[in-house]
Amino acid sequence: MTNSKAARRPPIHLIDTEADALTNLALGAEERLPQVSELLLEEIGRATIHSATQIPSDVVTMRSTVEFTDDASGATRSVQLVYPKDADISAGRISILTPVGAGLIGLREGESILWPDREGHERKLAIVKVSQSAQSNP
To answer: Which of 44, 46, 64 is nearest to 108 (CA)?
Structure first.
């Protein structure tokens, strides 16, 4: 059965090795972070999978820097999407295991998504710009 909220979400794109690593990460976080784990697994399940050399450069991938607008606050933020061990919010590095991180992965410049925050309120996140950093293995 298709969730109507998921049906309104834009298509997403993932790198094959990142999809595998993120699946393992989400499964490992199921007990600690059930909401984020479930959302991330849903996104991985509906993603179009690409090799690292074939993914469009305007797609949010792990370690990319993303400028996005949060309609709830009206603020535009620029963050780097990282694995939990590399997260440091004061340095602008957010974990994929946060609601915002899970919502940004796989989106393209110009796309937006309605996504729940930590309190379960839907927020619209709109991608302004994606910059790729040098990719390395997860």
So the answer is: 64
Give the DSSP per-residue string, 7-69.
HTSPP-EEEHHHHHHHHHHHHHTTTT-HHHHHHHHHHHHHPEEE-TTTS-TTB--TT-EEEEE
Q: Give yes or no for residue 1 having a pLDDT over 50.
A: no
Whether residue 26 contacts residue 37, with contact meaning beta carbons closer than 8 Å, is answered with: yes
What's the whole-number mean pLDDT along residues 52-77? 92
Mark 6-16 as b/e (b = at least 16 C-beta within 10 Å): eeebeebbbbe
Instruction: Return d(Cα 104, Cα 125) in angstroms, integer.
Output: 8
Global pTM reads: 0.86
Sign of the Cα pseudo-torsion (87, 22, 13, 103, in order)? negative
What confidence tens digit (pLDDT) does each residue in 81-97 have? 999 999 999 999 999 99
Residues with Cβ within 8 Å of 13's Cβ and at least 6 positions away in sequence, in order, are 47, 48, 49, 50, 55, 56, 59, 106, 108
Q: Give me the pLDDT at residue 137, please.
A: 43
